[in-house]
Amino acid sequence: MAAKFEYAQAEEIRDVLHERQARYLFIGKSGAILLGFPDTTQDADLFVEKTAENCARLLDGLRDLGFDLTEEQAEEVRRGKDFVQLKNGPFDLDLIFAPDGIETFEEAWRNRVEVDGFPVCSIDHIIASKAATNRVKDRESLPRLIAFKEYLKKKRRDE
């Protein structure tokens, strides 16, 4: 079983990919956690902009982070394969170039939330993606994510 994904690892991702000027968004449960969702996850999920230049920057950043990529994995990143799961680095990382439930990276980028320098998908996009994947574990977390969305709305109104 993989170790729990830690905030310090999110900071490493943020710092290295910022330095490399890669465009990505935290998505999934790791994104929700950065928004304040009270939960844990085993990995980080990144929604990555699928351009040749951005994929090359991401690849350099992954190597900077300590991922020992096979040539096959490097090629999957270069071409922006829909889903790339990495378990051969300092932590588990899922790269998602075409998440279910989100039309385009640009749409998600326009609606992103910045949290301490972390680019995060909006809670609406996180929920849409979880709902569209229709996996059992995602269906089970949806009611809590929806309640969290309502909490965030109320919190913004009260500020």
- Helical content stands at 40-55%
Strand segment tally: 6
| Unreliable stretches | none
Q: What is the fold-level CATH name, i.e. the topology?
A: Beta Polymerase, domain 2
Global Rg: 15 Å
Shape: globular
User: Mean pLDDT, rounded to whole units?
Assistant: 94
Q: Kindly provide the name of the CATH class.
A: Alpha Beta
Give an account of the 3D structure:
The chain is α+β, with helices and mostly antiparallel strands and 159 residues long. It has a single domain, classed as Beta Polymerase, domain 2 (2-Layer Sandwich). The chain is 52% helix and 14% strand. The strands form 2 sheets. A 4-stranded mixed beta sheet has the order 1-2-4-3. Strands 5-6 form a two-stranded antiparallel ribbon. Strand 5 (113-115) and strand 6 form a beta hairpin. Helix 1 (7-19) crosses helix 3 (52-65) and helix 6 packs antiparallel against helix 7 (136-158). The model has no long low-confidence stretch (mean pLDDT 94).
Question: In a nutshell, what does this entry contain?
Answer:
The protein is an alpha+beta fold and 159 residues long. It has one domain: Beta Polymerase, domain 2, CATH 3.30.460.
Give the secondary structure arrangement, pairings included.
Elements: H1 7-19, E1 24-27, H2 28-34, E2 44-48, H3 52-65, H4 71-79, E3 83-86, E4 93-96, H5 105-110, E5 113-115, E6 118-120, H6 123-133, H7 136-158
Parallel strand pairs: 2-4
Antiparallel strand pairs: 1-2, 3-4, 5-6
Helix pairs in contact: 1-3, 2-6, 3-4, 6-7
